[in-house]
Amino acid sequence: MMALDILREQRYKSAAFHTRRTMEKNNMIKLHGFAVSNYFNMAKLALLEKGVDFEMVNVHGSQDEAFLAISPRGKVPVLETEQGFLNETNVILEYIEETQGGKPLLPSDPYERGYVRALAKEIELYIELPARSCYMEVFFGGKVEQAVKDKAKADLLGGIATLKRHAKFSPYVAGSEMTIADIMFLFSIDLASAVAGKLFAIDLLAELPEAKALLAELAKNPNVQKIEADKNAEMAAFIAAAKARK
Ligand SMILES: N[C@@H](CCC(=O)N[C@@H](CS)C(=O)NCC(=O)O)C(=O)O
Q1: For the segment 32-80, what is each residue's pLDDT rounded down to a tens digit?
Q2: 244's torsion region: left (phi>0), alpha (psi -120 to 50) or beta?
């Protein structure tokens, strides 16, 4: 082969490689959200645990028309797939589980899957959401009405009692393997504990040492550590912006 042909062939191969890379990149899953969002971090941890190649798009929740077009309630995370956008974290976690290989985050047995899903839903509805009603006062220097705080306290205690009754913590929430229930747990319990400590002077996990042990175990996970580092890097700017908005 002449030198020119070799050069042409190399150029062709490199162009084909570049096109393939670009296509792969365009088809790559994109996770929209920001590093301080606990729900965003749930989806991010699932992707990292599975070793999925994904891109992050830094965006905050908003009611802007352009954002509402991809997230109907204006919240993050949003997962951008080849077919379109998906919102709601539990749905995103399920989609990731169904479409991506890597480490399973749901058991194969349908009943066991149901058990994990029930735990994840209980943590979201009965722990994360009541705690969230007080985030404005606990994290952003705002004020929350006493009636809201009273309800949050009763709901949170009910949520923790539910978790104690239903979870296994052996050592993971649903048993011996890490699942989406642990992901929901990890990124809900820390915030809920902060709310309970600061507003009600309660150690939310006092009756649940197994949960404290699991948090300590999960804190050793390199992907959890990466998410924590990314979160801390963005935290000061996020809090300043949130306080300026209030
Ligand atoms: N139910 C939603 C909740 C997501 C959510 O509350 N995200 C927060 C950030 S952690 C958000 O986008 N807040 C912006 C807003 O409400 O304007 C989900 O499961 O994804």
Answers
A1: 999 999 999 999 999 999 999 999 999 999 999 999 999 999 999 999 9
A2: alpha
CA–centroid distance, 161 to ligand 1, in Å, is 25
pLDDT in tens, 85-119: 999 999 999 999 999 999 999 999 999 999 999 99
Residue 185 domain flag: yes
Question: Are both 71 and 178 inside the same structural domain?
Answer: no
Residues 235 and 114 in one domain: yes
Q: What gap in Å lies between CA 159 and CA 181, rounded to an integer?
A: 14
Identify the domain containing residue 54 by its residue range: 3-99
- 128 and 226 together in one domain: yes
pTM of the model: 0.90
Q: Among candidates 128, 121, 133, which has minimal Cα distance to 167? A: 121
Q: Are both 90 and 200 inside the same structural domain?
A: no
Among 87, 88, 77, CA closest to 55: 77
Closest CA to 229 of 44, 28, 52: 44
What is the DSSP secondary structure assignment for residue 28, as one 8-state letter?
A: S
Structure tokens that stand for 55 in this block = 């891109």
Domain count, the chain: 2
78 alpha carbon, distance to own chain's centre:
11
d(CA 87, CA 73): 9
Measured by CA distance, the residue closest to atom 10 of ligand 1 is 37
Two tokens, residue 75: 């919240």
Q: Which atom of ligand 1 is nearest to the CA of 37?
A: 10
* Atom 11 of ligand 1, nearest CA residue: 75
